[in-house]
Amino acid sequence: MQTSLCSKIIHLVPGFIMLILASIYGQAPDTSWTVVISEPSSDVRSDARQTEDGGFIMSTGSLLTRLNQDGGQLWQVNLKDSWPLSLNTFRVQETSAGQFITVGDAEAIGGGTDHLLANVTANGDSASLSLSNLVYIESSRDVVETADGHYVLAGYTSGLTAPASASSSPSASTIGLSLIKMTAAGDTLWTRVFEGLEPFDGSAGYSIIETDDGGLLVTGATSIDLGGSLHVWLIKTDLNGDSLWTRTYTSGAKDIARSIIAADDGGYFIGAQTTPLNSDREDYLLLRLDENAELLWSKTYGGEQAEFLGSICKTDDGGVLITGTTYSFGAGSGDIWLVRVTASGEIGWTKTLGTNHLESGYSGYRTTDGGYIVSGSRFSGPDPGSWLIKLEKDPTGIEQPTNSTLPQGFWLAHNFPNPFNPITTITFHLPYSAETSLKIYDINGGEIRTLLRGNHAAGEHQVVWDGRNDSGNSAASGVYIYELRTDGQALSRKMTLLR
Fold first, then answer.
1. Which residue in 157, 279, 372, 404 has the most C-beta neighbors within 10 A?
2. For residue 116, is pLDDT > 70?
3. Considering the entire predicted model, what is its pTM?
């Protein structure tokens, strides 16, 4: 199914772009430990997340590896044992049911590649693969578990027609950004394709998140109506995957979005890779959007050589950690490069990880101890393979958002951690003293817990939920809604409790 789009093009203002060539910033966190996961071919991407028990899950190529909190291997599954041809994974996460899913692509029996969703049990003793074929060449690059317990895969479809014989080639057509909703059992509920990409430019739906209204935000790149150049593309859909609106952010150069995350005030950050005007090098690009996806500011970070952005994650103070690859800094030949910025985009610290061999950074996420887990690859030298690097707690003294950068109105932040077991923290801000209530509801609207009620002063407040109801009993695993009400206004967000 093709979806027509009503788009809005937003041009980035050059005066709001900052190029960082070299500087000395705050103290970066130390490395706690490093693990290398070998793959038959080291030229694969990797991803890693912290699990609810404090350990980690890592995907790399066809391997899914479960580790404890110190990096010790608990089990490893090779997905090739369940599929006779080659396959690659790009993103991994723990589900609300305590299992693990990873997405990517698998070589199809009749040629080309198919979208891949792999589901692995909690103890790694069983893996099931689900393939979805729309046309001939396609791949999934990210996945989100929705509130109804299903999954939406974001990626691309080539729009190619399969070749008539082994001696002929597929016929080219327009590439499309694809969304596929699947059940946990691997059944396809719906598919959507949004035309907007040129053939074989490497762009896709790279990152997807669920919004508080049950819809989806997916970001990638498009060249439609932009003179053939690629620029950041953001699509908002309803819960059925149908387009509500689109935004295109263009600086006049080549920009490809790799990652989107929610900000504390209801807006968003987009991490992208950009080729500046009149340049043949790449830099990190960070866009800050408000709740309506209007551009607030954009900043670039890089040196004299190329930088390639892998992902972004939110930090404890509402800033951003950017993970990727640098050829400008570090030991040379390519290193993992972390750039830690505040909520206003100012650099707190930077850190390179690597040797004088070629390394690349793919993803970084914060951990419950205040540190980060970073994944990447080493392509040459000793111990080639996928790297998993645990960083210690983000050091104190990093510049925090000031009153001028904090939202000053009525807002409700995303809880952290999320998913959680059994404790999570909810942060909100009041512009003035008011009668305020904060309540927890189940997904059907049943009231579970009143966390606070009464008059509260203006400013920022934090409340901890211990996963219990008003009777003191433990709430069951599942999706919950927390709602803040004051002075005739109400805000709500979703969170997931895993037991």
1. 157
2. yes
3. 0.78
